[in-house]
Amino acid sequence: MMRKFNFLNLLFWSLIALTSCTEIFEKDIEKEEITIYTPNGKDSINYSQTFWWSQVDFATDYQLTVVSPSFTAPEKMLLDTIVKNNRFAYYLGPGKFEWQVRAMNGGYKTKYFGSKFKIDTTEISLQTVNLKLPVNSKVLAEGLIEFEWSRLLGAKGYQFQLDSSQSYRLPIVNDFRTSTTYSYNLAVPDTYFWRVRAYNEKKDTTDWTEFKFTLDNSIPLKVALLSPLQSASNQGQSGTLKWNDLGSGYRYTVYIQVGSGQGIEYPNQSSASYNYSSISKGQEVKWKVKAVSAAGIEGPYSDLWSFTIQP
């Protein structure tokens, strides 16, 4: 009987603790309001729309839904997606639409907020090609570069240009195609510019839309470890590993082995430090770090250092 009571008692307090944690980490946002910025009831001639709304404090995600022509009489569900930011670009074309968005976190949701809008049919010269990949100002490594842009209603084809000069006087690539992708091998480190415009049967065109990217083949330098010092003893069970910072754009992979256990890599560290915790007393800890460039190129690992947790 006592054992059963203890189990029920433990279960009760576990549920209380779980509820308390939820209340601590998840803020109630159900009564928060969202301001709709755009599109917001006005007619437009832009086939591509950027849905933009106000941010909600303590929200981790937003659910965005777009239908045609309206939620009261829907004929098409065009978009139902979860996004992290308060802006989302999407190609629609002409028609009548209604959209709504709500904020969410792990425990709560706001109500939906939204608006109706209309996109009128327009000449291709007034439209815009949306470039997708590589994203603007991206740093890439040498190899096959994949280019992608959005399809445009009424377009017969697309003109794609690539050059290391923004003048495009003698472009590396000047291609006409019906698809919305292009692939090209690049090996020379430089800043490159690429642009696309659409054309129709009458040879009317959109304006150019342009992005740039940088090709960087350099291998990151070897990282120098700073602390704890090599062979340090009497370290705390929790602490911070530090190494020299190679500058902006780099991320780091930290390798840690505790005792005779399996070493584990912790990638994608954005700063030149890493916090460890809950290591058993008396254990030897081995660690090393390598840098990864913005282009995704890995540098060599640092020297392997070790320290000992206080007994």
From TrEMBL:
- Report the domain of life of the source organism: Bacteria
Q: Where is the signal peptide?
A: 1-19
| UniProt cross-references to InterPro entries, sorted A to Z | FN3_sf, Ig-like_fold
* Keyword vocabulary terms for this entry: Signal
Q: Which PROSITE patterns match?
A: PROKAR_LIPOPROTEIN (PS51257)
* Official protein name in the record: Fibronectin type-III domain-containing protein
Give the species. Sporocytophaga myxococcoides
